[in-house]
Amino acid sequence: xxxxxxxxxxxxxxxGGSSSKRWPVIVVGGGPVGAVVALELGSRGIPTLMLExxxxxxxxxxxxxxxxxxxxxxxxxxxxxEIRRAGLPLDHPSDVVYCTDILGDELTRFEFSSAQxxxxxxxxxxxxxxxxxxxHRISQIYLEPxxxxxxxxxxxxxxQRGWAVESVVSLDDHAVVHARxxxxxxxxxxxxxxxxxxxxGASNVRSSIGATLKGDGKAAHxxxxxxxxxxxxxxxxxxxxxxxxxxxxxxxxxxxxxxxxGSDLFLCHARVPEGMHRDDLDADVxxxxxxxxxxxxxxxxxxxxxxxxxxxxxxxxxxxVLAGDAAHLWLPLxxxxxxxxxxxxxGLAWRLAAVVxxxxxxxxxxDYESERRSVGEATSRAALKIETDMKTIASAANFHTDSVExxxxxxxxxxxxxxxxxxxxxxxxxxxxxxxQVSAGFVDWVDAARSExxxxxxxxxxxxxxxxxxxxxxxxxxxxTFDLLGPEFTLVTVGADDDARVLLEAAGTLGWTVAHxxxxxxxxxxxxxxxxxxxxxxLIVAWSADELPENPAAMFAELLALQHSGNTQSAAFGVxxxxxxxxxxxxxx
Length: 589
Prior knowledge:
alpha/beta, 28% helix, Glutaredoxin, D-Amino Acid Oxidase, Chain A, domain 2, FAD/NAD(P)-binding domain, 3 domains, 21% strand, seven-stranded mixed beta sheet, eight-stranded mixed beta sheet, globular
């Protein structure tokens, strides 16, 4: 489930003190978010040091969905198929089942395809979801090793395990990370141009920059989570129609339950009843209520925790930036937590790479904060809505009785669940529809009406409006337009080749290389409603229009927070005179 990974120790002094090397970027924390930051940076050839306290990848299976948006990002790195082949068996359905208990009455289920059906292209999700990479059910215990294996293959990334980061200081021209090696207590100071705090909800990096979490410290009932192994339960479930997740409503207790490997590893969550302290809820009682009978088992981990809805009041201080749980915490519903952090990582890493290479200005890091904060707040509200909407399910007095009334109540609950909780599993509005509201990182349409960052959890309307996800479209050869985008900025055009040359030449005069993807209108239909769309490295639309901007070079300079080398200032984009853009790199082979 976990593996010890290659580490490079050449730059660590054995006697303590300061490291002799100043890294362009240090990533604190090696979970999925930190791993993706390092993956994005390392793929661009940016030397990156990761400091992680644990000596192995995680043994805590707390994140169990990699959503479609994250899978789109992993597709760009060639990891999507490998991730799909991990975790559950390839032929195991990923259905979500609602029941009185795991071995009891089924109330309803939402059916989803197996990983094999996704891999061979026969899954119904391809007709229902506007993406080349539908969401995948995989526990973090299987996802992390895949990410770290790729990191070990990148020459630019060094992973240092067994280091506890205790504080970070941001100075004018660099940052200093103070860490302690756990095996011998060695204290070390590591220097970097920038530091990314991906060290979780109890982040020392966040504390170091004086940022605090604001919001609701107790957004829902406390939880008890039991990670356990049971061959007996695996045998019992083999005789039933399989599911991936089960929402169980036992008498006096309710929660959720996951199959992790399709055989003998399971994770069970229970809501602590009103008026009870979480320490008083016995883990064996939780399992017996959830399963419906005692089974032989081995407890691997019991965690007692409080759901929160918190967002840091600052994501950045000088040369230190936060991402993932260090920046925001909320209920783990809909798979929104880890995946929001992965989007943080992708949105931040390309900016850090551009700033470190001198091809963009420092303002890009402030753009990251404004963009991710707006979406983070909206996503946390979406998770809380799911919790609130499902609060009264199975609460009727006679729900569990073996009677006509009990049967009717359970049937009614199944119908209500299908109507109410579908949004948790069909959440394209969160996965694809989130749109940044105010940022200098894209050029908005002047006449576009402002709307919520996420209008609805279950609704997504493809659009090339700036600030939103660039829409996927299938091409005649079976490839996705996502597969043809460049590693950095890409100009996508539909019948605008002459104007494209003007834009590309304008970028070239600034020393900036932009990939060009010309598409025939008949190949993409009405997906791309503007003749020209500029796509950022995080697959967000930076600009789209039918006509050229008044000053194309100034537009590129403004998007990258650099001064335009000309003598005039563009009224449209507010760009003063100044410096030059350098060329981009690409993903390392």
